[in-house]
Amino acid sequence: GAGLDLGHLVFSQFLMDASALVSALVVALLPLVIHLVGSASTSRYHRLALHPRNPQSIWAIASYPLVHVNFRHLAFNCVPLLLLGLLIATKSVSTYWLATVLILLVGGWGTWLFSSADRVAGASGLVFGYWGFIIASAALSEDPFWTAAAALTLMVYAGLWSSLMKLEGGISWAGHFWGLVGGITSAVLVS
Q: Rounded to an integer, what distance in angstroms lies between the CA atom of residue 64 and that of residue 160?
């Protein structure tokens, strides 16, 4: 079936380059390490979180995806970070790192400029960015890998569409939206 073919394709590409797994694991597990190390200090969370349009918080564009409000928030981000990141990294580790940096820059600046939240934390913008990168890569190329990866991610993560513009307290719609924009932008730039 199609699922077996995608699994074989991902596994065979992974065997060619084990650094794909290492890369995806680093990005997915770094927030967990930071959460475990910093869980004793709520002031660290406040310092590393992004405070939109606050000039003293511009540097937090780099740190806010690494901090999470609680373990549940962290778990909701780490699993898709690993799975979606691994799909990108198995195709090309250099593309994975370039996409990650571009998503963080576009998503971070967009969130800093346009978020209505008082404070933003979490890697969900990067999750949306990876998702957007995979879908846009399928739309921009005729590579069967991206087509299969996009089909799989659309089925598994279909709920991301509904949470993209979720306007409820504690959820940064701007972080989700600008992460997605960053993913699409990075796919366009690397295609």
A: 20
Provide the 8-state DSSP code for 65. G
pLDDT for the residue numbered 91 = 87
Q: How far apart are CA 111 and CA 126, in angstroms?
A: 12
pLDDT tens per residue across span 20-72: 889 999 999 999 988 888 765 666 666 889 999 999 999 999 999 999 888 89
Q: Per DSSP, what are the bridge partners of residue 50?
A: 120
**The pair of three-digit structure tokens given for residue 16, joined into one six-digit string:** 């060619």
Distance CA 182, CA 130 (A): 9
DSSP-derived secondary structure letter, 99: H
pLDDT of 188 higher than 90? yes
Both structure tokens of 62: 């780099």
Q: Which residues contact 165 (CB under 8 A, 6 or more apart)?
A: 173, 176, 177
